[in-house]
Design goal:
Elements (H helix, E strand, L loop, with lengths): L4 H15 L6 E7 H5 L8 E3 L4 E7 L3 E8 L5 E5 L12 E3 L5 E3 L16 E10 L17 E2 L1 H8 L12 E11 L1
Parallel strand pairs: 2-10
Antiparallel strand pairs: 1-3, 3-7, 4-5, 4-6, 4-8, 5-9, 8-10
């Protein structure tokens, strides 16, 4: 039986297309501070109340970044930048593609889930835009640089994409987590 290269080559291309994992435009993970200090970079999804944690992100392209937390209870809170990293009240920061940024480490600022944020599912949103004017406007913050109402933030996030492959001007990476007692 003779098999043409067209059939074999087509099958190989299809297998490669469906078996190769697509690359995210923003790579990221969350883990406990003690795990991170011990060298673990695999990430975890479950944290205890008051447990210190680390968030690391690597944007594939340069741009402007902001990181928000949506806990089980309450509105979105800006994690980065914050008053400890940007004392002029900036609500986004310039980042370089390919560079890893970690927050919650011993040389940055502490992060944890206080009991007031409740137990259950939460979400960290890492927003990367090509320009400053694509970031959330200052007037949309309930408390400038700190808190954003859920409705406002959800509308803002809806115009971003969690792309696989070619990055867009408005990217978002979601890191989901659970908080337990």
């Amino acid at each position: 039986m003779k098999i043409s290269c067209f059939k074999v080559c087509s099958v190989v291309v299809l297998i490669a297309a469906f078996s190769t994992p697509a690359l995210s435009c923003i790579d990221g993970f969350m883990t406990g501070l003690s795990d991170y200090t011990g060298g673990d970079r695999s990430g975890k999804k479950t944290f205890r109340v008051e447990e210190f944690l680390v968030i690391c992100v690597t944007p594939k392209q340069s741009g402007y970044m902001a990181i928000y937390d949506s806990p089980a209870q309450g509105d979105f809170e800006q994690l980065y930048p914050n008053v400890m990293t940007h004392d002029q009240g900036e609500t986004f920061s310039r980042v370089s593609g390919g560079e890893t940024y970690c927050f919650g480490t011993s040389d940055s600022f502490p992060m944890y889930h206080p009991s007031s944020e409740g137990l259950g599912r939460g979400k960290v949103s890492v927003v990367l835009t090509a320009s400053q004017d694509q970031q959330l406007p200052a007037e949309d913050f309930e408390i400038p640089g700190q808190r954003v109402r859920s409705g406002v933030m959800n509308r803002y996030l809806s115009i971003h994409s969690e792309s696989q492959g070619k990055c867009t001007d408005r990217e978002v990476k979601y890191l989901y987590y659970d908080v337990i007692q």
